[in-house]
């Protein structure tokens, strides 16, 4: 197995420890501590279910013993695909307790993505809920085991069928292993996948808990806070900004919403007196539209975090009047760096910037094509390194060579302007992915699928500005033989076993991708030209 690690050069690690960022804590240890301090305090609320910290710990230990009994071993990597239900937490904290490493898949992922994660991570297990939102994840488990037989163990919350049920009672005959080191990899997040398939992001206990603890401070999370998880719990934004992990770290309450829609979330805000939540821009817009007519009392909401994609100032301005809470813009990435506007920033800063970095030791560079710093206020590529930003992806030398400088800066691919005080304004990006309502789609990945269609000669995927989604995906297709219909092509894409959000929103047939006089153009130039021509015709 390829070892799973995240390594900072010694001098950096020493500095981050000396500064008190890395404190030697693990996920298991902090949960144990909260359960000892306030066993009766409510940790998780889902529907009518309420788990105290004591119960969450007991369930995590039960799950841990169950995994070991089923044959999984400490150090095993395990793909987890569970939506916003309480078992997400017992399953994941159970893996931590058993010394296993979760890889967080999103509920939307299908066999193509799940098989890729399992292969890349050399996963031995797959933990799912039986059914969610009308989809049976046990079918996906069967497909996965057929494709990647190394995934020997499937554990199911709910009806397990032929698989192992997620243990809910502690089997006392199984001894739990000692805690892992805080510098070990705690879990694997997945990248937005700017080129090709998603990359694997190993995060350590030390680095991630630092980002959550610091986020709590910046976002005002205390033991009295109530955080609503409206976005998928597996995504890095609702996990760490300050997210459910920050909330649990603070000993506060996490409320799970089955969907981010106002219909599902507003009654929960009223009933649980939710104080803080996070949304992507299109959902924030939807909430603002729904708020004036809702019968539900939203007055407990103090902070709304918005991030994942650019929140335009025109809409940002309306948050406080519409929802009566403070907007906190967040510009983060699963690879690490997170920027926030501060709660006491001037309104102008909150509305017009995407905030500043969490840590005084976040090194943020804004550079030109040659890698030279640009003057303050000028747009440039954002590079960063720091106490919670990774130094490398797992098992991907090519991506590492592309994405990191020789001195360890992560090339975010984002184009930003830096203002006085370190505040960043996101201007655009260097890469060709589509940011569809916060979901990142790799143009290359989707083009590869389309090229497998018998009536597609060539394909280019382009992002088109969209009033609601921020960006939508448009597939330009040169047909061969028959001319495929847009709807049929989309239906065919759905058979490719990919997440629904990756199916192109729009299909445009063209005769050719006219190349310039110079002949060959890069895919990047081609996509840019197709986008420009398309927008001109509108
Ligand atoms: C978050 O994480 P990822 O890994 O899904 O995506 C990261 C990328 C950034 O590189 C940037 O391109 C874009 O998403 N992004 C934003 C943004 N926040 C993220 N672009 C413009 N404005 C923003 N506010 O999306 C994520 C992770 C942690 C916290 C928040 C978001």
Task: Please give a structural write-up.
It is a single chain. The protein is an alpha/beta fold. Among the domains are: 212-431, ANL, N-terminal domain (Rossmann fold, 3-Layer(aba) Sandwich), CATH 3.40.50; 434-537, ANL, C-terminal domain (GMP Synthetase, Chain A, domain 3). The chain is built from 18 helices and 27 strands. Helix 4 (87-97) links the parallel strand 3 (77-81) and strand 4. Helix 2 packs antiparallel against helix 3 (53-70) and helix 3 crosses helix 4. 5'-O-[(R)-(benzoyloxy)(hydroxy)phosphoryl]adenosine binds next to helix 8, strand 16, strand 21 and strand 22.
Residues in β-strands, percent: 25-35%
Shape: globular
Compute the separation of the termini in Å: 52 Å
Low-confidence stretches: none
Q: Regarding CATH, which class of the domain at 212-431?
A: Alpha Beta
Mean pLDDT: 96
**Tally of strands:** 27
The CATH topology of the domain at 212-431 turns out to be: Rossmann fold
CATH superfamily of the domain at 212-431: ANL, N-terminal domain
**Strand order in the sheet with the most strands:** 2-1-13-12-14-15-16-17-18
Structural class: alpha/beta
Bound molecules: 5'-O-[(R)-(benzoyloxy)(hydroxy)phosphoryl]adenosine
Task: Specify the biggest β-sheet.
Answer: 9 strands, mixed
- Output the radius of gyration: 23 Å
Helical percentage: 25-40%
CATH architecture of the domain at 212-431: 3-Layer(aba) Sandwich
